[in-house]
Amino acid sequence: MLDSAHKAISPSTYDCALCSITHGVFSEREQWKAYRESSEHEFLFLHRDEFQRQFRSKWLPKFSFPIVLEAGSEGLQVLISNEELAEMAQPQELIDLINGRILPG
Fold first, then answer.
1. Superkingdom of the source (predicted)?
2. What angle do CA 88, 92, 93 make, to 5 degrees?
3. What is residue 103's predicted lDDT score, i.e. its pLDDT?
4. What is the C-alpha separation between 20 and 36, in angstroms, rounded?
5. Which string of DSSP letters, residue by residue, matches 39-86?
6. CA–CA gap between residue 26 and residue 10 (Å, rounded)
7. Rounded to 5 degrees, what are φ and ψ at 24?
8. Which of 13, 17, 25, 89 has the fewest CB atoms found within 10 Å of its own CB?
9. Phi, psi (5° rounding) for residue 63?
């Protein structure tokens, strides 16, 4: 509820670029939701604290959040950096970048 209120009242100070792209004030953006549900890829969304609990390791690099990671044979790799996410405003920009970088299933 606090996240939704923050996004509605002061969107310019909301600090999660990924959430701003994929979600509106109260729900997931339709364009993003349709893409995610129709994709052959599995998506797992974790808040920073959830990620750090689930993937705690002294060997894991320090990531700047938000970030899009891809799990592969080499472990977790950066697919889209937080700097790139900060430059995006629309779901289609994220969709195009994912499609351009990720290999078919």
1. Bacteria
2. 35
3. 64
4. 16
5. -SS------HHHHHHHT--TTSPPPPSS-EEEEETTEEEEEE-HHHHH
6. 14
7. -85, -160
8. 13
9. -95, 150
Per-residue pLDDT of the chain (105 residues; tens, 9 = 90+): 444 444 444 444 446 889 889 998 889 999 999 999 999 988 999 988 899 888 888 777 888 899 999 988 888 899 999 999 999 999 999 999 999 998 665
pLDDT in tens, 22-31: 998 889 999 9
- Phi, psi angle pair for 48, to nearest 5°: -50, -50
Torsion of CA 55, 99, 90, 20, to 10 degrees: -10
CB 14 within 8 A of CB 5: no
Find the length of the chain: 105
Q: Are strands 75-80 and 68-72 parallel, antiparallel or unpaired?
A: antiparallel
**CA 84 to CA 51: how far, in whole Å?**
20
Q: Are 73 and 103 in contact (CB under 8 A)?
A: no
